[in-house]
Structure formats: C-alpha cells, structure tokens
Amino acid sequence: MRPAAVLLAAGVALLAPAVAWAAPPVETPAAPLSCGGSEPFWSLTLDAGGNARFSDGDGREITSRYTLQPSRNTTLMAGTTFGPAGSLRAVIINNACVEDMSDGEGGFVYEIALFDGDKLLSGCCKPG
C-alpha cells in the first residue's frame, strides 16, 4: 500500500467516530408534553391519550382532543390543532429552550409557538 493511501485510510478511521458522535439522532416532538410560557402565564399539556389541556392564565381552560402531526420535511418539528373548532394551533420545535419564569425547573427541550385566535404565545415544552 502506498504511503498516501495509508494516511488517507488512517484519517478516515480517525474521523468516522467523530462524525458519528457529532450527529446525534434527532427526535420529533412527541407526547406526552408539558408546555408553558409567561407574560401572560399559560400552560398546555398534551397527554399520551390524545387529550390537550390548555389554560390561558386568565381563567379560561380548554380540554379537547388533539393529534400531533410531524412535519413532512424535517424531524425537528411537529404541529397540532385543538380546541373549539380547531381555534388553537401550536408548532413545537426540537430546540433547547429557556423559560425565564420556570423557577429553575429546567429540562425544556422544545420551543413552542401557540396561536390562540389572534394572539401568539411562545414558551417551552418538556417530555412528561
């Protein structure tokens, strides 16, 4: 074997583990999820049985069925429509999230944008 071929083979062997390590599997957001945000404070729970529970923080609470739909072209996000006449929509993105008002609770692995009629709420979600 020529010296250049030996060096190339050694370089590929050294890089292969790094490439595998640098690309961890990406999880599509999946229920159960516990989500919330602040200013205003709101919460959304998507349970594994297909039930969504939303509280807008002003005393309005909605419980309805939902279906979480993964994106067709990326594993990084999923979306759902729920509530009366599908009036609530949410997009959940696989991206680490920091919620300032979570009292250091942590564990948030998803960002969420929730459309409540003409209001856009943003926050964080975590499994469970």
Percent strand equals 35-45%
Q: What general outline do the C-alpha atoms trace?
A: globular
Radius of gyration: 20 Å
Give me the oligomer status.
Answer: single chain
List SSEs in N-to-C order.
HEEEEEEEEE
Largest sheet: 9 strands, antiparallel
Structural commentary:
This protein has one helix at residues 3-22, and strands spanning 33-37, 42-46, 51-55, 61-65, 69-70, 77-82, 88-94, 110-116, 119-127. The protein has 128 residues and is of the alpha+beta class. It has one domain (33-127). The chain has a nine-stranded antiparallel sheet, with no helix packed on it. Residues 4-25 have low confidence and may be disordered.
In short:
The chain is built from 1 helix and 9 strands; from the N terminus they run H-E-E-E-E-E-E-E-E-E.
Highlighted features:
globular; signal; 1 helix; 128 residues; alpha+beta
Please write out the topology.
Elements: H1 3-22, E1 33-37, E2 42-46, E3 51-55, E4 61-65, E5 69-70, E6 77-82, E7 88-94, E8 110-116, E9 119-127
Antiparallel strand pairs: 1-2, 1-9, 2-3, 3-4, 5-6, 6-7, 7-8, 8-9
